[in-house]
Design a protein that fits this description.
The protein is mainly alpha-helical and about 230 residues long. The chain has a domain of about 140 residues: Helix Hairpins, CATH 1.10.287. It is about 75% helix and about 5% strand. The protein contains six helices and four strands. A four-stranded mixed sheet has the order 2-1-4-3. A hairpin with a 6-residue loop joins strand 3 and strand 4. The radius of gyration is 38 Å and the shape is rod-shaped. The structure holds zinc ion.
């Protein structure tokens, strides 16, 4: 099989491949991926903080309820005249008053701690939101730059594709189909020379049986990297 036409095709295809790689390896693409990750992390953290805040607000509401109950008890006891009570009742009342006041004290401290926690959450939430907004803004800029790059290379890509279409007609159809399959899988170059007994790309030694068939088949397929191997 004549593989000259496929080699000619691949030579031109290399130019197209280079343009595609240039676009793929654009620093803007890498940066955009990084920024998307930052934005995503910030989003996840925001949701976590929201959940934490909600839980804390429920806790605060419980503490407040308990505080109000104890406060009401304490207010009730203000109206009691210990002088008019029996010794036993007066002692009970005093004990209760002590408990209620201690409760109020504890609850007040809990409220203060919760308020501090809420403030910390709010502060982190604002920071996270800012980080998200900033990442999002930069991401949009990167995407814009990528689009511009793509547009810039579009005419060159179109020109190469048209030329390749012309060359394609000279290549054996089934060989071309196999070539395109590999090209789509990002295997490139697709066809490489035999170097000694080795694949010109991955350096894996080829079986003698296969090598002996190169002349008749035009190419053999490297079992390791799946490339076409031809004899130069
Ligand atoms: Zn190989």
């Amino acid at each position: 099989m004549n593989i000259e036409s496929l080699l000619e095709y691949q030579k031109l295809d290399t130019e197209l491949f280079k343009v595609e790689q240039k676009l793929l390896e654009s620093p803007y693409r890498k940066k955009a991926t990084e920024l998307a990750n930052i934005a995503k992390k910030a989003q996840v953290r925001s949701t976590e903080l929201e959940t934490e805040a909600e839980k804390l607000l429920n806790e605060i509401s419980d503490i407040k309820e308990k505080y109000n109950l104890n406060k009401a008890k304490s207010d009730d006891m203000l109206g009691l005249d210990v002088e008019k009570m029996s010794m036993e009742d007066a002692e009970k009342s005093l004990n209760l008053k002590g408990k209620v006041l201690s409760n109020l004290n504890i609850l007040e401290k809990m409220l203060q701690k919760s308020a501090e926690k809420i403030n910390a959450i709010l502060s982190e939430f604002n920071k996270t939101k800012k980080a998200y907004d900033e990442a999002r803004k930069q991401y949009d800029v990167c995407k814009q730059k990528l689009e511009e790059e793509k547009k810039e290379y579009e005419p060159e890509k179109e020109r190469l594709k048209k030329e390749l279409q012309k060359l394609e007609k000279n290549v054996d159809a089934s060989l071309m189909a196999e070539y395109k399959k590999r090209r789509n899988d990002n295997i490139f170059p697709v066809i490489v020379p035999l170097e000694g007994n080795f694949c010109g790309r991955c350096r894996v030694e080829q079986p003698m049986v296969a090598i002996s068939r190169i002349k008749e088949n035009g190419v053999i397929i490297c079992e390791h990297c799946k490339r076409f191997i031809y004899k130069a």
